[in-house]
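Hi all, posting the design record for the shared folder.

TITLE: backbone redesign
STEP: 1 of 1
STRUCTURE INPUT:
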């Protein structure tokens, strides 16, 4: 998936060629000529980068940036473009959190280099707690303050490894920004059935063999905070009715006890299973299903929100950097493989692959083989299945390869490449756009 850029520029003589260059270099670009239109887009869509002029016809660029910051939403890196006379204004924007600025007139090659670096930037500390940059994860984040104001049960569904617990923890942090309330997580499928009641509700001294002292269950431990019951679909039927009673009465009866203890918790449940189908198959109580299904948050798999893949990868690399003397990076080829791989294990699998690469990779820059392994199923899946393509596609591939090789021989110089190919400079640009040849693919030379 192409990195998407939000361009905010009212000058058509600057905006038009910049959009053309961005698209030819492999970026998707939404161009806005007013600050208000761009602000609406930035509030609802996910971008990897925003490029904005400071002087706009309706509002100033710094006003735009300040209003977006006040929204509290995760923002893409901001690169401001300004005239020499407004450098002080640009510097103030850097202090507020903008990534960088460039003064007019600027070299297009330097601008493209900055854009590429910012699109693959390290995740800033201020964004570490966000859920992602995809539209669906931003939508979930927007819902969390509303959910935090309520104590209604929340059910988070999604495949294994999509980050359901992270959503639950994020909801808890929104509800308790001071960090004083407890967050207790328990996996219902990881506790033996004969111990589950004690784990949930606690027990009194002498309640069973080995109960040498009274112990509070997770309901009591989470009192005043959030209780996260992961894999609720694995809860045995014998416990479902007791759980329903505890939720309804907001009180628990410890094993061996004769007096209920009131609890005030925010209940968040999660599962990778289809609870509705389980109800129809008499595997899950219908009354419990509707009791925990008050608010439903479905988290899509990673393959359906590919914008988040590199964002998450950079976040994990930043964590791994803290355990190593060298900063880790991902090559362009490996980044393409990450985005194209289906990730059946979702975020958990992505993290494990990068952790393995941090141990086994020969250098600090991870290649595809380091992440997926030189052999085996992962490497084949990352490379994709062999395909047979029509003749037209094959001829386009040959033309693309030949133009790239001539570009490299000419050091990226467009005019020299066009002369060697026997076509005009304009014709070469058109072919590069059609064949999706990025000028940045060549290593050196003047691309102008």
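Okay, here is what came back for every position:
SEQUENCE:
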């Amino acid at each position: 998936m192409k990195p998407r850029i939000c361009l905010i520029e009212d000058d058509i003589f600057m905006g038009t060629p910049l959009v053309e260059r961005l698209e030819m270099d492999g970026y998707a670009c939404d161009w806005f000529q007013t600050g208000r239109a761009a602000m609406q887009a930035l509030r609802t869509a996910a971008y990897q980068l925003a490029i904005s002029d400071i002087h706009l016809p309706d509002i100033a660029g710094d006003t735009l940036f300040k209003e977006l910051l006040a929204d509290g939403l995760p923002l893409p890196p901001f690169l401001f473009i300004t005239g020499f006379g407004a450098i002080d204004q640009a510097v103030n924007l850097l202090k507020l959190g903008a990534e960088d600025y460039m003064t007019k007139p600027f070299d297009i090659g330097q601008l493209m280099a900055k854009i590429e670096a910012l699109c693959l930037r390290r995740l800033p500390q201020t964004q570490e707690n966000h859920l992602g940059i995809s539209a669906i994860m931003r939508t979930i984040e927007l819902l969390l303050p509303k959910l935090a104001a309520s104590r209604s049960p929340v059910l988070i569904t999604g495949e294994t490894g999509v980050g359901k617990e992270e959503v639950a923890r994020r909801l808890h942090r929104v509800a308790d920004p001071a960090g004083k309330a407890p967050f207790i997580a328990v996996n219902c499928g990881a506790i033996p059935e004969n111990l589950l009641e004690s784990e949930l509700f606690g027990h009194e001294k002498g309640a069973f063999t080995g109960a040498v002292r009274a112990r509070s269950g997770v309901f009591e431990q989470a009192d005043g905070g959030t209780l996260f019951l992961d894999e609720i679909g694995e809860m045995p039927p014998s416990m479902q009715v007791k759980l329903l009673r505890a939720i309804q009465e907001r009180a628990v009866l410890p094993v061996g006890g004769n007096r209920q203890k009131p609890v005030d918790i925010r209940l968040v449940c999660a599962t990778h299973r289809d609870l509705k189908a389980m109800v129809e198959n008499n595997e899950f109580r219908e009354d419990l299903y509707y009791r925990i299904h008050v608010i439903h948050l479905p988290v899509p798999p990673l393959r359906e929100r590919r914008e988040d893949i590199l964002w998450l990868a950079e976040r994990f690399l930043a964590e791994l950097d803290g355990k190593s003397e060298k900063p880790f990076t991902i090559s362009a080829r490996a980044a393409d493989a990450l985005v194209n791989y289906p990730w059946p294990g979702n975020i958990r699998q992505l993290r494990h692959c990068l952790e393995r690469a941090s141990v086994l990779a020969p250098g600090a820059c991870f290649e595809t083989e380091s992440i997926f392994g030189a052999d085996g199923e992962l490497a084949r899946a990352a490379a994709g299945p062999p395909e047979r393509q029509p003749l037209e596609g094959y001829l386009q591939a040959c033309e693309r390869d030949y133009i790239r090789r001539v570009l490299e021989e000419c050091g990226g110089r467009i005019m020299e490449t066009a002369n060697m190919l026997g076509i005009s400079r304009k014709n070469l640009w058109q072919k590069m756009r059609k064949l999706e040849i990025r000028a940045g693919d060549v290593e050196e030379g003047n691309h102008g």
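COMMENT: Residues 122-128, 443-448 have pLDDT under 50 and may be disordered.
Let me know if anyone wants the other runs.
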